[in-house]
Amino acid sequence: MSKHNILLLGSGGRECAIAWKLSQSPLLNSLWVAPGNAGTAQYGTNVPISPMDFEAVGEFAASHAVTMLVVGNEDPLVAGITDFFHSRPELAKVKVIGPSKAGAQLEGSKDFAKGFMQRHHIPTAAYKSITAENIGEGFAFLESLNAPYVLKADGLAAGKGVLIINDLEEAKRELQSMLAGRFGAAGSTVVIEQFLSGIECSVFALTDGEHYQLLPVAKDYKRIGEGDKGLNTGGMGSVSPVSFADDAFMKKVVERIVEPTIAGLKAEQLPYVGFVFFGLINVGSDPYVIEYNCRMGDPETEVVMPRLRSDLVALLEAAADGRLHETTVDIDPRYAVTVMMVSGGYPEAYQKGMTIEGLNTVQHSIVFHAGTARNAEGEVITSGGRVLAVTSYGNTKDEALAQSFANIQNIHFHNSYYRRDIGFDLE
After folding, report:
1. CA angle 232-238-241, nearest 5°?
2. Least confident of 35-44, 167-176, 370-379
C-alpha cells in the first residue's frame, strides 16, 4: 500500500474528529483540511478554500498530488463534487470518499429518500410529497393523520427544515408558509410524514457501493435544553454505544434497513462510495428510518472515531477500490461520550471572537474543535455557535461523562454553555 496525500473538506467538529483519526494512520503521507479550524491544524495543514469552490478544490488537489479526497459535509456532495472529480482527467485517479450527486439525493431530497425506501420496502413513516400544485391533497393527508404532524422541507435546510406541530390548523398554515418560501428553494416540495413515537439512534455504514462495514452506533442530543427541551441545534453531545441497540435490534437494522439500502443503491445504479448515515427510531423494538444522510453525523463522529480501532485510511482506500469485504472493523468496547461547549445565545444570536482558555489543561479527554479559529495574536477564539466537543472514554457511560465534565470545568470562554444530562435517557 502506498502512502496517501489526503484533502479533507469541512471545518466542524466532525472534520476535526476525522482529521484526528486519519492522522494516526501509517498510510498517511500528508493531510490538508479545507478550510479547517484551529483544531484540525493540530493534525494537518489548513488551506483557505471553500468546499463549494470545486475549481479551487480541484486545482489544489492537482497541484499537491492529492490521492484521496474525503468530503466531510453534505453540501459539496449534493452539489456533485464527486462527479466533478471523476469528470476531470487530471483528477480522475483521486479516490473520492463521498457519493455521486445521484447517490447524495438520499440526503439532498427527502422526497427521493422516501420514494427509495418505498421501492425497496425499507420501514419508514407513511408520507406524502406536496407542492403548491397539490396542496389540497396535503390538507387531506394531514386530516387523515393523528397529531403531532411532521412537515419536512424536501431540500437541504441546514437541519432547520423540519417542523413538528400539534395543531391541525397550524400544520396547514405552516404547510402553506413552507410552500410559499419559508425555507427558500428547499421547501418548494414538502414531505408530510406520520409521526413515529420512540427513541432515536444513529447507525453508520461505510460502503464501496456493493459491500459495507458498520461503524459504532451512536445517539445524539439535538435540543439546547436539558431533558431535550428548547430549540433544535446541530447537536449538544452524543453517546456510543447505545444501550437499546443490542444484537437483536441491530439484526433487524441490518436485515431490514442496511442491506436493502446498499442493494437498492446498486440496483438503481447510484454510484456510492462513502458513509451512509441511517437516522433511526426504535418503535416498540422495531427500527424505522427517519432520514438518511450521505456523510457522517456531527456530533456523533466525535464518539464514533474514538471507538474505531481500525486504520481509517485503510478502510477508506478499500471502499474506494471496491474491496471493503476484505476488511474487518475493530471497535473499542469502552463507552465514548462527547459534550458540546457552545456559545451563549446559540442556536439564536451569539457572539464570536471570544478567547478560549484552559485547552492546555485537558487530561484524559480529547477536545475536538467545532467553531474555533486563531486571532492575530495566535490565541484560539470562538468562531461558531458550537465551539468544542469534549470526548472521553469510560467503562460506563457515567464514567465517560464525568471525565468530560471534569475537563470542561477548566476550559473557559465568555458565556459558554453545555448540557449536563447527555445520555440521560439511556440506561
Report:
1. 140
2. 167-176
What's the angle, vertex CA 161, arms to CA 390 and CA 135, rounded to 5?
165
Paired with 10 in beta bridges are 35
In one-letter notation, the amino acid at residue 143 is E
The number of angstroms, rounded, from the C-alpha of 71 to the middle of its chain's C-alpha atoms is 11
**Non-local CB neighbours of 243 within 8 Å, separated by 6+ positions:** 426, 427
The amino acid at 105: Q
Place of cell 450521505: 294
All cell numbers assigned to 195: 409521526
Enter the C-alpha cell of residue 189: 416540495
Can you state the percent helix, strand and coil of the chain, rounding each to 5?
A: 30, 30, 40
> What would the grid cell of residue 405 be?
465534565
The three cell numbers of residue 59 are 486545482
Report the side by side order of strands in the sheet with 95-97: 45-46, 28-35, 4-10, 68-71, 95-97
In Å, how far are 33, 34, 168, 241, 394 from 398, measured between CA atoms?
33, 35, 41, 12, 8
Strand pairing class (199-207; 274-283): antiparallel
Helices first, then strands: H and E counts in the chain: 13, 23
Q: How many CB atoms lie within 10 A of CB 364?
A: 11
Q: What is the DSSP string of 259-308?
A: HHHHHHHHHTT----EEEEEEEEEETTEEEEEEEESS--TTTHHHHHHHB
Interatomic CA distance for residues 397 and 16, integer angstroms: 23
Q: How far is CA 373 from CA 213, 297, 353, 354, in A?
A: 34, 22, 8, 10
The answer to whether 17 and 235 have CB atoms below 8 angstroms apart is no
φ/ψ of 216, rounded to 5, equals -55, 145
β-pairing, 149-153 vs 190-193, is antiparallel
Alpha helix locations (H) across 26-128? Answer: 54-63, 74-79, 81-87, 105-108, 110-119
pLDDT band at 185 (very low <50, low <70, confident <90, very high): confident
Residues 31 and 68: beta-carbon distance below 8 Å: no
Residue 314 has pLDDT above 80, yes or no: yes
Amino acid, single-letter form, for residue 342 = V
Banded pLDDT at 287 (limits 50, 70, 90): very high
